[in-house]
Design a protein that fits this description.
The protein is mainly α and 398 residues long. It has one domain. 72% of the residues lie in helices and 3% in strands. The protein has a two-stranded antiparallel ribbon with strand order 1-2. A hairpin with a 2-residue loop joins β1 and β2. The longest helix is centred in the last third of the chain and has 29 residues.
Amino acid sequence: MRERQRHLSALVRRVDAATPPDRDRAVDALRAFAILGVVGGHWLVTALVSQGGALRGASPLQHMPWLAPISWVFQTLAVFFLVGGHVAAKSHASARERGIGYGAWLAARLGRLFRPVAAVLGLWAAVAAGLVVSGADPATVHALVKLALSPLWFLLVFAALTAATPLVRRLNPLWPLAVVLHVDLIRFGFGGPAWLGWVNLAAGWLVPYTLGAAWARGELTRRSGAVLLVGGAAATAGLILWAGYPASMVGVPGEAVSNLNPPTLAAVAFGLAQCGLALLLRDPLSRWMRRPAAWTAVALANLSAMTVFLWHQTALMAVTALGLLAGSRLPGLHTVPDGLGWVLARIAWLPVFALGLAVCWAAFGTYEQGGRGKSRGGSLVVGAAGRGGAKAKAVRRA
């Protein structure tokens, strides 16, 4: 035990020493919290119910609408796009100063984003083929594959906005916000076509992305954060209470309207409130990140952010499948999410999902790092943190 503590203490010191002095650790903390929020939210509100030998997707929000506040805590995508716009705008400006062309800059930005995708697609192509050949229920195959690959929509939108950074990094966030407002007005106020809502898939996430770019230019202050938080929260409450928008900030099976798929004005207003809170938390987070142990945890989470994001649904499904193989329908795992008992049971399953995700990380984490070497135990991150030149590169890439 003491030997392990010494190794951990040495790792903490190395990661802290490897971090460039000008690194904005608070931004990294916000990105880590955003990813973990999405993962935690999916694990809490995504259920695979076993019925008649088949699995179908369900959500506790269907049966217990009073749980909607859970989605307010864990639907953190706006913060991720805020951080993404902030980092991309700074990175592009720095690349131009150093004479790096747009193509090289974009390839570097998107490389790590998409490296782990091939492993996910390959594994699930094999799993889907195996299920079909074995005669599995088509509805089950569809539910599993849809759940496993659902994170990819986010990557495609994020990649598109990243590619458009030179065009949008000085765009006023009010312009895409106006697009979202008019799209919803036409859809819901004048009975426009439902497909028009997909315009908001770009415009809706462009709002926090361009806010991040404005933040990188130094145009957002703590006062801006307070205005965004109060204004966004008030607008969200008004839209839910008086304009008929759903209270849940994630999609709920069976609901006629989803705030997230595609994003609605309520989701964008809620995202503005989240961005405001993120701006207000920057200084406290900066102080917290001066603690080497806290910073090491955030740095390591950032190094594996895409692996965690892409594989967390697979981890949930693997645990669910193993439970079925045991021959029983386990509470909180295979049962209908229609009561508080299910919620308590699901919370108890979260450490098991985390263990499954750790297995996925050990197996596929090297894809995110581009296969740059392996250390004992398969931990590329720890190995990078323990080597002189490589440790600085690993932290800078986070």
